[in-house]
Amino acid sequence: MTVSYTAAVTVTGEGRNGGRVAASDGVLVTPLAVPKELGGAGGATNPEQLFAAGWGACFLGAVRRAAAARKVSLRSTAITVEVTLNGTEDGQFGLAAVLNLELGGVDQQTATELGRAAHQICPYSKATRGNIPVTVNAVAVTVAA
After folding, report:
1. Is the Cα dihedral 11, 91, 83, 133 positive or negative?
2. Mean pLDDT of each 10-residue bin along the chain, 145 residues long
């Protein structure tokens, strides 16, 4: 089965510095701001947060797919994605990412294997592979019954 979806988002104004993001379906509408940590006003989202949110949501879908293929039952899933914008001495910028995955209902070895498998099939992981440094940390967590 071939699946296709195109997201259309328009960014206006100054982009990351006071711009505005609007999806064509009207569901996502938000202002942008440079984070205080980078000398900006803060108070609104930024491209790194949006990228981290998209990657995290997609990655959890890939984890679920990898688990289903292995007939592994997950009791819980959570991920914290850290996307770092790094400046270089020559005035350029680059990204780095850390994906901190928490899986309940599995042992540590299975959590690690599912994290690796998801990183191979997640479209965001594929898009960034070889382009930015990415670390995937997978941890098995205890889930209360």
Report:
1. positive
2. 91 94 97 94 96 98 98 97 93 96 98 98 97 97 77
**Contact between residue 17 and residue 32 where contact means Cβ atoms under 8 Å apart:** yes
Q: Is the full-model pTM beyond 0.90?
A: yes
Rounded Cα distance between 85 and 93, Å, is: 7
Cα–Cα dist 134/137, whole Å? 10
Q: How far apart are the C-alpha atoms of 127 and 145, rounded to whole Å?
A: 38
Q: Residue 99 corresponds to which tokens in the numbers above?
A: 């994906």
Is the distance from CB of 64 to CB of 77 less than 8 angstroms?
yes
